[in-house]
Amino acid sequence: MAKKRPQTKAGRPQLTDGEIPVVGAREPCPCGSGRRYKACHGRAAAHAVTELVQRPFEGLPGECDWVALRELVPAATVELTLKDGLPEGVPSVTLATVLPMAWPALRRDDGSVLLGLQNDTPSGDISRDLADTLQRALEAQPGTPVQARRAPADGPRMQDLLDAEGVFEPVVHDGFEFWVPDPENVAPDVAASLERANAAAIPTVKLTGVDSAYWCETPDKNHLRWVMPHPEERLLDALARLHAAGRSSLGEGTRLVGSFRAHGLTVPVWDLPSGVSADDVEKPAAEFAERLAAALASEAPLTPEERRARGGLTNRQVTLS
Length: 321
Description:
It is built from 8 helices and 12 strands. It is an alpha+beta fold. The strands form 2 sheets. It has a 6-stranded mixed sheet with strand order 5-3-4-2-1-6, with helices on one face. Helix 6 packs across helix 7 (about 280-295).
């Protein structure tokens, strides 16, 4: 039998952890260990990019609206202001809830950039994934989409790229015609995607009198979904105080039915009769905001009735992210 050739590491350069490049999961690890990358230094790299960031939009202007556009609103756009200004040849950067063919981003023929928000992201930090996609879109050739990829673990986040003083003003649309400058003359696959998206979109309106509250219409009843910035436990206490006192509704026939958890924030939800429009809840929502502010300021322990109300609200929470 032939003798096995002895293994030796003599003369092999030694790399520090910081010098190990990222390679394919099944490739040999560049450190020279002889193991596959995923079983060696790839473990730490994978953990770094998959660790869940509970509040990915914290620190961005309009955090509550970021959450709403990510989870609740079908069709909306927002003009983004970059910290370092727009690069040459890029007239605008627009955040969109979703793009045709579920593209992560699109560099239009005129050089403008559309960045999709409602896409699956490879890591546990939506903000880092979006920032990586945005940077690649700014450098893409006009007229081309940007594909998804895993963002580098040490890459920038949206908080690093956007102007912290910039405004974040969502524009809610009836459909997705904002995808294309000329909806009547588009490629067949884009036209089909546009038709499917429009058919699935739930009519949605952003209230003007309070922040980050969105009315939507469904076949059986309407709803108001209101993303709030307050700490969850304190907000649930305040809602329980109002609920126990019979002051949590938005008028006759309306009812606070529970809440969503989404990206570190709480989203109370009201059921509304089918005939109640967004305009109809503007004034009741503003009045509720005043009642909620007073309840949030209370330091008194919850009464037994309020604790029961809180338990009911907690049992009707649904986590979206």
